[in-house]
Amino acid sequence: MNTPIKLTDRKRQAIVEAAIAEFRASGFESTSMDKIAATAGVSKRTVYNHFPSKDELFEQILHELWNSTAAMGPAPYDPARPLREQLMELLSKKMALLQDDYFLDLARVAIAEAIHSPQRAQEMVARLSVKEEAVTSWLRAAQADGKFSKADPFIASQMLQGQLKTFAFWPQVTMGQPALDTAMQKQVVESTVEMFLAYANATE
After folding, report:
1. What is the arithmetic mean of pLDDT over 34-61?
2. If residue 159 lies in a helix (H) or strand (E), which one and from where to where?
3. Beta-strand (E) ranges in the chain?
4. Residue 82's pLDDT is what?
5. Confidence class of residue 105 from pLDDT cuts 50, 70 and 90?
6. Do 44 and 37 form a contact (C-beta atoms < 8 A)?
7. Ramachandran area for residue 117 (φ above 0: left; ψ -120 to 50: alpha; else beta)
8. Where are the chain's structural domains?
9. Under CATH, which number does the domain 1-52 receive?
């Protein structure tokens, strides 16, 4: 049975979504809490009750971005299953995250603000690196199991995830291109897996 969402939680989420829209449209510095309140359809007092400052509101956006990334982390490596099959599942899950509209909106806001704030950019890179370490750990487990010998797990992790982002993240975030259709998503994932298996001297 689904638990009803409380009114206060709905208002909080409306504020976050309004902030994302306004930060995207006008940038962090030019967006006021008044404008966010108006877009969310709540009072300015309500906004401040949930978020005492604009910085804290932005931190919430980053928090949701990190949580989205963590929620789509890989399942534990399974030595009983074929490497190709597990890689396809791992990268398909990552692809689903990269093409999620809400995740892309969060990423656009975070990246735009990071450009104007070097300190925030450093914090973002550090925190994202921790989240993406899960793929590196997964690859280390597969290598320890003798599934591939040539590739360094850290470099391989960056290559695998970077290949997906080349088609299914950066064009959408920086150039406003539409999400990939299902067939193209599958093609990118399959090609990425095949390139890795060939490069890494993998055994199935």
Report:
1. 92
2. helix 153-168
3. none
4. 95
5. confident
6. yes
7. beta
8. 1-52, 58-199
9. 1.10.10.60
- What whole-number distance in Å separates Cα of residue 157 and Cα of residue 137? 9
Q: Is 69 helix (H, G, I), strand (E, B) or coil?
A: helix
Residue 172 has a pLDDT of 93
Residue-wise over 42-62: b if at least 16 C-beta within 10 A, else e?
Answer: beeebbeebbeebeebbebbb
HSE toward the beta carbon, residue 175, CA cutoff 13 A = 9
- The span from the CA of 102 to the CA of 118, in Å, is 24
Q: Which amino acid is at 4?
A: P
The whole-model pTM stands at 0.80
Tens-place pLDDT, residues 70-96:
767 788 999 999 999 999 999 999 999
> How far is the C-alpha of 178 from the C-alpha of 63, rounded, in Å?
25
Q: Does domain 58-199 have CATH number 1.10.357.10?
A: yes
1 pLDDT more than 50: no
